[in-house]
Amino acid sequence: MKKVASLPEDNNEEKWQTNPETKEESKSCYWTQFRFATWKDTLMMVVGGLCALVHGAASPLMLLVYGMMTDTFVSSAGELTLSCCRQLAMLMVDIEAQMTMFAYYYVGIGLGVLIVSYFQIALWVSAAAKQIQRIRKTYFRKIMQMEIGWFDCNSVGELNTRISDDINKINNAIADQVSIFIERISTFIFGFMVGFIGGWKLTLVVIAVSPLIGLSFVWVKQELPSCWELQAYAKAGAVADEVLSSIRTVAAFGGEDKEAERYDKNLIEAQNWGVKKGTVIGVFQGFLWCIIFLCYALAFWYGSKLVIETNELSPGTLVFFGVLMAAMNLGQASPCLEAFASGRAAAKTIFDTIDREPEIDCFSEEGHRLDKVKGDIKFHNVTFNYPSRPEVKILNNLSMLIRAGETTAIVGPSGSGKSTAIQLLQRFYDPKDGMVTLDGHDIRSLNLQWLRSLIGIVEQEPVLFSTTIAENIRYGRPGVTMDDIIQATKEANAYNFIMELPQRFDTLVGEGGGQMSGGQKQRIAIARALIRKPRILLLDMATSALDNESEAVVQEALDNVDGRCARMGRTTITIAHRLSTIHNADVIVGFEHGQAVERGTHNELLEKKGVFFTLVTLQNQGNDLPNDKASQGRIHIEVNNHFQRATEFSGWDWTPVARILKYNKSEWPYMLIGSIGAAINGSVNPIYAILFSQILGTFSILDVDEQRVQINGICILFCAVAVTSFFSQFLQGYAFGKSGELLTRRLRKVGFQAMLRQEVAWFDDPRNSPGALTTRLASDASMVQGATGSQIGMIVNSLTNIGAALIIAFYFSWKLSLVVMCFLPLIGLSGAFQAKMLTGFANEDKKAMETAGQVSSEALANIRTIAGLAKESTFVDTYEQQLEAPYNSAKKKANIYGICFAFSQCVIFMTYAAAFRYGGYLVSSEGLHYLVVFRVISSIVISGTALGKASSFTPDYAKAKTAAAQLFILLDRVPKISLSQTDGEKWENFKGELEFINCKFTYPTRPDIQVLNGLLVSVKPGQTLAFVGSSGCGKSTSVQLLERFYDPDEGTVLIDGRPSHTVNVPFLRAQIGIVSQEPVLFDCSIAENIQYGDNTRNVSMEEIVDAAKKAFLHDFVMTLPDKYETQVGAQGSQLSRGQKQRIAIARAIVRNPKILLLDEATSALDTESEKTVQAALDEARRGRTCIVIAHRLSTIQNADIIAVMSQGAVIESGSHETLMDKRAAYYKLVTTGAPIS
Questions:
Q1: CA-CA distance, 106 to 540, in Å (whole number)?
Q2: What pLDDT shows up at residue 320?
Q3: How far apart are CA 109 and CA 57, in angstroms?
Q4: Directed axis angle between helix 930-953 and helix 884-926, to 10°?
Q5: ABC transporter domain location, by residue (predicted)?
Q6: Could you tell me whether strands 1024-1028 and 1185-1189 are parallel, antiparallel, or unpaired per DSSP bridges?
Q7: pLDDT, greater one: 303 or 623
Q8: What is the pLDDT of residues 727-752, one digit of tens each?
Q9: How far is Cα 118 from Cα 121, in angstroms, rounded to an integer?
Q10: What is the mean pLDDT of residues 793-815?
Q11: Cβ partners under 8 Å of residue 624, min gap 6
């Protein structure tokens, strides 16, 4: 009952997993991110926040000092012009003493800033480190507590990313960013205050204009909602996803070029959006600078009026650009908001998991523990489907009894629910209906840890943890002695091989047990199960993955165990694929379609002629075949991975930016215009420095009219700069936007083409899943753009800025310039350094987290094994120990980062102190005009900050480099099977004679499972060959070798007497038409789907209709309102299966192939449609070589050759009559009518 109540909540869980909109709506409030803060942390954050407030006030304070100083200079200059020589000496002393005074002020403010900015950072970062530590522990503990069904719906990769990336995002949102945000807001407020105190009229005038700046921000947000970029790319992304998901169909029909074109067409929208974005940002920046310079013009014009005409202000108060500084700071606070937003979204997912109550709680203490366990297990009408696939019924009213002390074997075709039954017994899942009882108690009422402690399990692919053999066995039961371990290994036939190893029980088994062979892993796993002294022993296909020799050894161990179990009254449940292994089971239960359909001893079931009989018939005949599944596969996989890793990383360091630029070559006019714009933008700042000092200079002119003329002239110049700035910013934004987007589109296209060029085996690697590849196309290409277009703009901009500033400074006073220059590297570096610090620390954190990450990813990847052993808490403890190192490094980082930040913040104050002190000396002793002092200092300081900005605002260059490296690795990869039109031979009269000679084959992703094992069969032109056999015996694989999706590991496939690997691939595939069990249709019209059959030419409508008639499709199509233009929906979802099959047949007929491959083409159909489709197939087979894979024997009786397959080889072949006379496997299958899975 309880289960039913909690169902709806589970569905919601899935909903927010999949639906981004709902995720956005229910973002947590920002403060919830601090829910793990203790009172100490809160205190640290409050003190840090206060320090940030004080630090924010420093810049406006500096303006005050600056203003007082300007007054001193101006008045001294004014008096100088008046005075005669007598006063000169007095004033000199005066100005120098004054300047020394100001220098001290600056030093004082600088030291203050040094102290408060250190605390501001150190306190916030260390408080955040403590909270993050708590979040990590809580989150991991919670995940380990979740039921297995939850893991089915959340991929392990995603959880690992959440543990690392999402928690880092929260860290960013609650650490230094907060204090920097507070500091900038404080500068904003104090700036206004200083402005109002100094001169409220001027401040009000400037404020009146500032809403324009705000409005421009709003406009940009409206024009460029961030979701649009994704939507613009979504169409192209959908095409890429559809194509990569059905890559086999695309390859079989040679549609690679067609698809690349279709993808490219859909990229136009994304490109236009990107250009628009560049333009809008250009206009925005232009508008912003234009407004700022017009503001300056207005402020100086009105301010000088107040100074000269009404004497309300002194010249110094004009420097109350406090207001503008405030406005700028508000702008700079916005990146922090971004960090907060992504932190909030991340916190939502993390905290939702933390707050979720698991449906089956493994840490719970509730539930009974029985005093005495007999071991009777009963399934009462159990219905079940996996939470990840709710529409597929796995168990359907399953009822069966397993008696205590007996060995019960469960057999049945794959997918019939055998392993699922065992997982319900372990309570990995709860049944949807019905119940599972142990000694009459519903297992849901028992204590979970206790229940699992009764059960020992040995799986098909046993999981070992990367530690020693002894430790792995200890996982079975805590606190066992070494003698117990030795005893268990002896029982499991493992003792001898362990003693032969150099380190014996202390041998490390490697990641996932990679250093051990399959047989050795199995025996260690059996020892681990035995040491638990379980009341119930579950053997899930414990020997299926082994070669004959190891199988014999492991089987012997299991038989020993069986004998002992019977003596001890232990209940044993065995699931077997090899039926020879269960001869001596007490009871055998046959499963089919999630029900127990038969039950009895070995002999009873053979007489019943049901599921068990079919399985036995097929296997017995295949048993005399050679079988060598040596562990060569394992070595091969290790080497492969190492090799791949090596290649992945070697390419990363020297990413040729030059090579990216080559792809951008045709856009050189855009890049040139953009660079010109950038150069003009770069020179704006130094020009500002000249105009600014010029204005201050005018105040010492005594003739009022002359003064007014000069001031008006300067204000007009400011307006001119404003307008120029608008156009040049626009040019830079538009031109680089355009060239960058063209580059992105080109890179996406070549990337996509490179993917389609790869052989099919490459797509089997989980790293190249359609999802991963589409994401890479979406993000990598747009990241690479960051390394070219806008990057060049940034560089040109900074270079002209610094160049112009230095020229101006040295032209006016080289002595002062040299002094200020000494500080320039410090100012520039401090900006760059700060940016570096942040990214550097992020990488260090990642490194420190690696060991903890290994623990968590091992735990999550093997969660079933851990749950079966009830060892969740052990892993939680290990993980928490591993977190100490990153935590300590974070605390250390808080201090280092604090010191560096403090230094970078106070450098500028020290620069001013030194520069103005020396400037004062030059004014008094060398008679330098004070205007020059301002001009030199402001131009160099401004260029210094530009340096810092350029280094921190570069769109993430490092990211662009790694993305480019990944892209080029893909572009440079040479596929193992070339799709080029020129490689390999073609010939005129293709006959279609096929021969498989001793083909052996394993899939590259599962090298330890031999799929084909010496396949030997041939077919003459025009004949039909039918393959029969149980699932997994290699029927479909042989078809894939013929299509050259793969090449055999040994042996050859001959086509018209030529080895397949010498034949031109597009030529070969053009001769083959394929209709598979689940035909893949593309999301376009019926006509276009049929046309897809021949992508080398344009297929006419007549041919389409003709093919449709042959496929018995035409009449049905004519009943549809849109006839052949009817859209079939994604993957043909608008059509029934029979209709999809017939479209697929028509598609194959349009090719007019010499060879037709029918892979279970009618298996998924009901009887009615099967008849129609079968008739269409018989029509299509005429005059063609045909290979049929059948699962209903009735459909292939008229085939020329019938080949019965088992375990990757043909056990008998011939026509229907010949095989019936032989009275062997085929005869038995036909006469009993036993089902073939």
A1: 77
A2: 54
A3: 10
A4: 160
A5: 377-618, 994-1232
A6: parallel
A7: 303
A8: 988 888 888 888 888 888 888 888 88
A9: 6
A10: 82
A11: none
Q: Tens digits of per-residue pLDDT, 575-615?
A: 876 666 677 778 888 887 777 778 888 777 777 777 777 77
Tokens representing residue 863 in the block? 């969660």
Backbone conformation region of residue 1182, classed left if phi is above 0, alpha if psi is from -120 to 50, else beta: beta
pLDDT tens per residue, range 1052-1084: 888 888 888 888 888 888 888 888 777 788 877
The mean per-residue pLDDT over the stretch 791-813 comes to: 81
Instruction: Report the SS3 class of residue 38.
Output: coil
CA 743 to chain centre: 23
Q: Tokens for 763?
A: 């797509």
Structure tokens at 751: 């990337």
Residue 386 and residue 392 in contact, taking contact as beta carbons nearer than 8 Å: yes
Say if residues 518 and 550 touch (Cβ distance below 8 Å): yes
List pLDDT tens digits, range 1143-1168.
888 888 888 888 888 877 665 555 55
Three-state secondary-structure class, residue 598 = strand
284-320: buried (b, 16+ CB within 10 Å) or exposed (e) per residue? Answer: bbbbbbbbbbbbbbbbbbbbbbbbbeeeebbbbbbbb
Query: Strands 1010-1019 and 1024-1028, how do they pair?
Result: unpaired
- Beta bridge partners of residue 1073, listed in sequence order: 1156
Cα torsion through 265, 267, 270, 271, rounded to 10: -90
pLDDT, one tens digit per residue, over 1121-1148 is 777 888 777 666 677 767 777 788 888 8
Can you tell me the mean pLDDT for 627-633? 37
Radius of gyration of the chain (CA): 39
Distance CA 164, CA 161 (A): 5
Q: Which residue carries 């979504």 as its tokens?
A: 234
Per-residue pLDDT of 959-984, as tens digits, reads 677 777 778 888 888 888 887 778 88
Q: Do residues 880 and 139 lie in contact, with contact meaning Cβ atoms separated by under 8 Å?
A: no
Dist. CA 455–CA 408, nearest whole Å = 15
- The mean per-residue pLDDT over the stretch 622-642 comes to 38
Q: Which residues contact 267 (CB under 8 A, 6 or more apart)?
A: 233, 236, 745, 748, 749
Of 623, 709, 617, nearest to 1237 (Cα)? 617
Q: Which residue reads 């048993």 in tokens?
A: 623
Backbone angles phi, psi at 596, to 5 degrees: -85, 105
What is the C-alpha separation between 670 and 524, in angstroms, rounded? 66
pLDDT at 649: 33
330 close to 217: Cβ distance less than 8 angstroms: no
Distances (CA, A) of 1191 to 253, 1140, 1179: 25, 19, 20
Q: How many residues does the chain have?
A: 1237
Q: Where are the alpha helices (DSSP H) in 1071-1150?
A: 1086-1091, 1101-1110, 1114-1118, 1137-1150
pLDDT in tens, 1194-1221: 677 778 888 888 777 888 888 888 888 8
Contact 313, 202 (CB under 8 A): yes
Chain-centroid distance of CA 768 in Å reads 12
Greater pLDDT, 1160 or 1047: 1047
CB 943 within 8 A of CB 805: yes
Distance CA 652, CA 218 (A): 40
Where would I find the beta strands (DSSP E) of 1160-1200? Answer: 1185-1189
Residue 47 banded pLDDT, cuts 50, 70, 90: very high
Give the pairing of strands 587-592 and 595-600: antiparallel
- Give the per-residue pLDDT at 776: 76
What does the block give as tokens for 772?
Answer: 């991963």
Of 784, 779, 891, nearest to 844 (Cα)? 891
CA-based angle 505:511:513, to the nearest 5? 50
- Give the C-alpha separation, 859 to 847, whole Å: 19
493-510 in b/e form (b: 16+ CB < 10 A) is bbbebbeeeeeebeeebe
- Residues 167, 36: contact at Cβ < 8 Å? no
